[in-house]
Design a protein that fits this description.
This protein is α+β, with helices and mostly antiparallel strands and about 280 residues long. Helices cover about 30% and strands about 30% of the residues.
Length: about 280
């Protein structure tokens, strides 16, 4: 968006009434407060402040002529406002909102509300009431806004750490029930392999390959045994998975990467064979 339209054009719209995105769940109309190096700041008609990364914008429409607020009154109001200094980059902005309650994306299936646990260079981590622990690729976020918490209960504090790389995040979810992407692109299953190009999930008798570049959202399913036991995994499969999760947390000091890789490969092979065998028996 920055290359197509240019920051100079957007800067001319500051203090004017604009519509960001012509339509769809991410569209909002309001006052353009600021244009930073790679994002803009919009104050909507309901006084919500929304941050839009420029790389994800499709259109910005000047609605000043249709606004019920006159230009004279608009500039008078702006002059009375306190000057706010926004972070220069979108990543710095996200980091400044850490531990706050935010909404990622404006609406639709890709939207989530939760506490921003961490902001890495390639992704962010949120704890949500409905989806659990979720991760968004930073360069695929359409919009971000602060909002009031609507949680029915106070969520427990979750300590989150890890690599800045999104691929390393995916590897940390190996052998766990994982949801990838939203809407028609949504897939879920047990994540059994992650390499530099694609990730592999297994569900029932399906083996699903997903290019890593196409993954913009990941959710970690917590209660796999309770919710998916009868439908997706029998007790034997759970016995295969659970020891590996336990071992990864208490791995001996003398365990070598080669031995760990070989063990993981064996577990993945047994997992696929087990699921395929159960699917055949059920037919």
């Amino acid at each position: 968006m920055a290359d197509k339209v240019g920051l100079s054009y957007l800067e001319k719209l500051v203090s004017k009434t604009v519509t960001v995105f012509k339509g769809g769940p991410h569209s909002r109309t309001g006052e353009l407060l600021a244009v930073q190096s790679d994002y803009l700041v919009l104050k909507t008609e309901d006084q919500q402040v929304v941050y839009y990364p420029l790389t994800q914008l499709k259109s910005v429409i000047d609605n000043t002529k249709n606004s019920t607020v006159s230009i004279e009154n608009l500039y008078t109001r702006l002059a009375a406002q306190e000057t706010i200094i926004y972070p220069d980059t979108f990543q710095e902005l996200v980091q400044s909102l850490q531990l706050g309650y935010v909404q990622v994306n404006g609406g639709g299936p890709s939207s989530s509300k939760g506490y921003l646990l961490d902001a890495k260079s390639e992704y962010i981590a949120l704890t949500t009431e409905e989806k659990g622990l979720v991760f968004y690729r930073l360069d695929q976020i359409k919009s971000l806004s602060t909002t009031e918490s609507d949680f029915s209960e106070v969520l427990p504090t979750i300590a989150f750490g890890g690599s800045d790389l999104f691929t390393d995040l995916l590897r940390s979810l190996l052998l766990q029930w994982t949801t990838v992407n939203h809407g028609p692109d949504k897939v879920e299953g047990i994540l059994i392999e992650v390499n530099d190009e694609y990730s592999v999930l297994v569900k029932h008798k399906e083996v699903i390959y997903v290019p890593n570049d196409s993954i913009n959202f990941v959710a970690q399913k917590v209660a796999v045994e309770e919710e998916e036991n009868g439908e997706n995994m029998d007790n034997t499969t759970q016995n295969i998975i659970q020891p590996e999760i336990t071992q990864s947390n208490t791995q001996p000091v003398n365990s070598t990467p080669a031995r760990t890789s070989a063990r993981n490969s064996t577990i993945r092979r047994m997992l696929i064979e087990n699921i395929m065998r159960n699917s055949t028996i059920g037919q």
